[in-house]
Amino acid sequence: MCCCGLPRCDAAVNYAFAYRRYSLPFRTPVRTAHGLWTRREGLLVRLESEDGGARFGECAPIPWFGTETVDEAEVVCAAFDGRVSDERIAEIDEKKYPCLRFALGKRGIANAEPKPCAPYLPVAALLPAGRAALDKIPALAEMGFRTFKWKVGAADAADEMVLLDDVCAALPAGARLRLDANGAWNRRIAERWLSRCAEYPVEFIEQPVAADAAGAEDLLLGLAGDYPVPLALDESVAGSGDVARWLESGWPGIFVIKPALLGDVERVAGRLPKDRVVFSSALETGLGAAAALRVAFEFFPGTEKPRALGFGVWPLFEDARFDGPRAAPFVRREDFEQSNPEILWNALN
Predict the structure, then answer these.
(1) What amino acid positions are annotated as catalytic residues?
(2) Is residue 86 within a helix (H) or strand (E), and if so which, with residue range?
(3) Is 213 exposed, middle or buried, given 0-12, 13-18 or 19+ CB atoms closer than 10 A?
């Protein structure tokens, strides 16, 4: 048994392996119900085959979603001691290390074999919490965005509900608004928001109560059945087992899927209803974003009117080299596939 708890594997080595840790400051701190998020931490991984071909992936954990920490992922990477095989990768516990499994899996690799996919997909614009959202909407509307995501649950609920009037008034005609509470509310506050939002162009409310709150599953199912405004699960579906459990419970709402957090995301995605899925960024670098976006594009070929992606997050980092494709109302596959992962790898040297 090695130091990370993995069994020793005597299979032939397939790759030379290396990893580099990053800690990148955001251009603007991200304010959520979990507090102020100022830096993104994670790992870039590099696998080189015997013929000299290099592949890259990204491990971008979010521990408060229930993933591993960066330190835990780094212990596993260090235990590889510079060499890794496909068999050894398959032995990594997907429940314990979902982000590392995604980084090393075929869908998480930056230059994975292409599959049939949608030609382009719509994108939602991310608005900051509070009144700062009002300053962002006009320029985003001028760019052509018609789906907006606003972070709520970061201030007093009564103040945010008053501000909802101004936010909706500032939206362009025909626009839809997503509210993301990051699990900040209790039942009483969630019910007040759901009642109020019935009068507004709200597409859905994302994660109104915390995934780990007592009785959360029954509460979310009850709220989804009692109000006309759809609900979406985000932190509640942070792992592949979570997705399966909510499907079996008969969840009627939306699934917000962050591919970078789900390990074998291809297996998970195969069970999801295409009309109730929103693929979303985990605020990873452009390298991980390319792999996550590829999952979304391969999920929607031939799908009419797929829901807008939650990837309207860039520019995100102080060092723009680590950003994904600049936020736009639509994204094409070539927008993210043309990036060179070697540039990001070398930038961490």
Answers:
(1) 151, 258
(2) helix 86-90
(3) middle
Q: What are the structure tokens assigned to 114, written together? A: 């292409």
Sheet bearing 35-49, strands edge to edge: 54-59, 35-49, 15-32, 83-84
Query: Regarding the domain with residue range 15-108, which homologous superfamily does it belong to in the CATH classification?
Result: Enolase-like, N-terminal domain (3.30.390.10)
Q: Tell me how many degrees the CA angle 59-60-63 measures, rounded to the nearest 5.
A: 120
First to last CA, the chain: 31
d(CA 314, CA 181): 21
- Least Cα distance to 280 among 182, 160, 347, 155 occurs for 182
| pLDDT, tens digit, 9 for 90 and up, residues 144-201 | 999 999 999 989 999 999 999 999 999 999 999 999 999 999 999 999 999 999 999 9
Fold of 120-347: TIM Barrel (3.20.20)
Contact assessment for residue 197 and residue 229, using Cβ atoms and an 8 Å cutoff: yes
Six token digits for residue 329: 């109302």
